[in-house]
Amino acid sequence: MDPNRCFVPFDLMRLRGAVAGFAYAILLGVINCLMTGAALSAEKASTPTSAEQTARRELVVALFEWIDATNRRDFIGQSRFYPDSMDAFYLWRNVPRSAVLAEKRRVFARASTIDIGSDAPQLIIEPGGRSGRMYFRKRYVIAGTARDRTGEVLQELRWVKQADGWKIVSERDLRVIRQARR
Questions:
Q1: Would you say residue 148 lies in a domain?
Q2: Less crowded by CB within 10 Å, the N or C end of the chain?
Q3: What is the largest CA-CA distance in the chain?
Q4: Would you say residue 14 lies in a domain?
Q5: pLDDT value for 6
Q6: Which residues pair with 179 in a beta bridge?
Q7: pLDDT score for 95
Q8: What integer pLDDT is reported at residue 46 of this predicted model?
Q9: Residue 73 belongs to what H/E stretch?
Q10: Pairing of strands 149-162, 165-181
């Protein structure tokens, strides 16, 4: 296997409720791939430190948990990923946690279906392993609102490790790939 390439041919992020054994096995394969230094990273760098390898594993797991909480409309589960203030939340800048959570609560309350899926992320871990950027193609269906929304975007999440775990400090779409509203 080429150590600079990790191909995972599954839709890893379509998890519902408890993690099924098969999906968990795939997740372990991705984590193993990340641990070996395989390039899901967009940047060529020197050998990652132990802290950076740990950050990769933790961030992949955090992404799975974040998407799973979204799909289950688990407001409390979603809430734990947001710090007191965010640099960016889609088109908003310098956003207080209360505004982010109010928007999440509004979407959860109005939607009868939320279905988020993603490809394996590209990760860029900053030296020291305390922050990182994550890029991935996100597919979404949000139905039951005044206008149903479906589409696919290139999403960026910026993460910072705080005392109580990894927090998303920036959540935004970099590019709309496909979008439909009904």
A1: yes
A2: C
A3: 50
A4: no
A5: 45
A6: 151
A7: 97
A8: 72
A9: none
A10: antiparallel
| The total number of structural domains that make up the chain | 1
pLDDT averaged per 10 residues in sequence order, the chain, 182 residues? 40 43 48 50 67 96 96 95 98 97 93 94 96 97 85 97 97 93 69
4-36 burial: b if 16+ Cβ within 10 Å, else e: eebeeeeebbebeeeeeeebeebbeebbebbee
Domain span holding position 124: 21-181
Q: What is the CATH number of the domain that holds 112?
A: 3.10.450.50
Q: How far is CA 126 from the centre of its chain?
A: 17
pLDDT at position 30 is 54
Tell me, yes or no, whether 15 lies in a domain: no
pLDDT score at 144: 87
* Of 126, 164, 109, 117, nearest in space to 43 by CA: 126
Residue 157: closest CA among 13, 53, 23, 37: 13
